[in-house]
Amino acid sequence: MVFLQRFFADLFVNLTLGRGISIVMDVALTSLLFYAVLRLISNTRALQLAQGLVIYYLLVFGVEWLSLKVGLLALNSVFSWLRSFSTSFLPLLLVMVFQPELRRMLGRLGSSKLVSSDTHTQFTDVHDWEESVDEIVKSVKYLSMNRIGALICLQRQTGLEDYVETGVRLDALVRAETLSTLFYPNSALHDGGVIIASNRVLAARCLFPLTASADLERGLGTRHRAAIGITEETDSIVVVVSEQTGVISLAVHGKLTRYLSPLELRGMLLVMTKPIASEHRFNLTGFFRKRKPNEQQGGGDGQA
């Protein structure tokens, strides 16, 4: 208590306008940092692990302080060693605990407009884009009416090549008949998810990571967990059809919206997957991309 009184007394005695602005900015930036970290780990198992770490260090510091005050030197030595040992391995422990959240954060940074690649634009033509959305909605409507489970992942800025490798490559046009056939029960490719990018069905029977969130509705199965999981790792959009109820759901950024009608699904897909005019957008990938020989020579038409 005496320390706090001296601290605030020295603070207000030496306080100037510039120092006051600096203190306000310091507190604001620190608060924003803590808010960003808490938002990153909210609704995940990492939040519980972080709470466990805080409680652990509070107990260690508390027992160490109390044992020193009471005079239990042996107990104080043990907890002092435990504190120093835990602190030395704290950075490694944090990386291990928050590894999924760190991957998600770095993935979002890599998929930002500054460093994104033009090849990750989902649909390059407005007409093809609208036609593909209509075909997807048509297939989802059929699958929902017949209670056939489906998991359709639409790529946006973040590449999904790692997940494509886990399935069977197709490179087919987006057609309602194709999607419905892929998810038909007992067919060779009905398990797993389908990945769509650049107006093409890239692969089927792909494996997606399952979410570790504990705040899901009871009754949601592996298909819905996989939809949420891949949207936590990437910026993709996933359409899910429940095999038991035929309910249509949409997963975006780790959040699941359920009980959608085909019309609602179409509207949301048209908004969320709208083509980006990336040819006029600066990005680091395009800046460092190797130029073609005819571009380096200033165009070959005049040299013919």
TrEMBL record:
Transmembrane feature ranges: 20-41, 53-75, 81-98
Keywords, alphabetical: ATP-binding, Cell membrane, Membrane, Nucleotide-binding, Nucleotidyltransferase, Transferase, Transmembrane, Transmembrane helix
A GO molecular function held by the record: diadenylate cyclase activity
Reactions catalysed, as given in the entry: 2 ATP = 3',3'-c-di-AMP + 2 diphosphate
Domain DAC: 99-262
Gene Ontology biological process terms, A to Z: cAMP biosynthetic process
InterPro entries membership: C-di-AMP_synthase, CdaA, DisA, DNA_integrity_DisA_N_sf, DNA_integrity_scan_DisA_N
Presence of the UniProt keyword Glycosyltransferase in the record: no
Gene3D superfamilies the record matches: DNA integrity scanning protein, DisA, N-terminal domain
SUPFAM superfamilies to which the protein is assigned, alphabetical: YojJ-like
Enzyme Commission code: 2.7.7.85
Pfam families, per the entry: DAC
Reported function: Catalyzes the condensation of 2 ATP molecules into cyclic di-AMP (c-di-AMP), a second messenger used to regulate differing processes in different bacteria.
UniProt subunit comment: Probably a homodimer.
Family in the record: Belongs to the adenylate cyclase family. DacA/CdaA subfamily.
Record's protein name: Diadenylate cyclase
Organism: Candidatus Cryosericum septentrionale
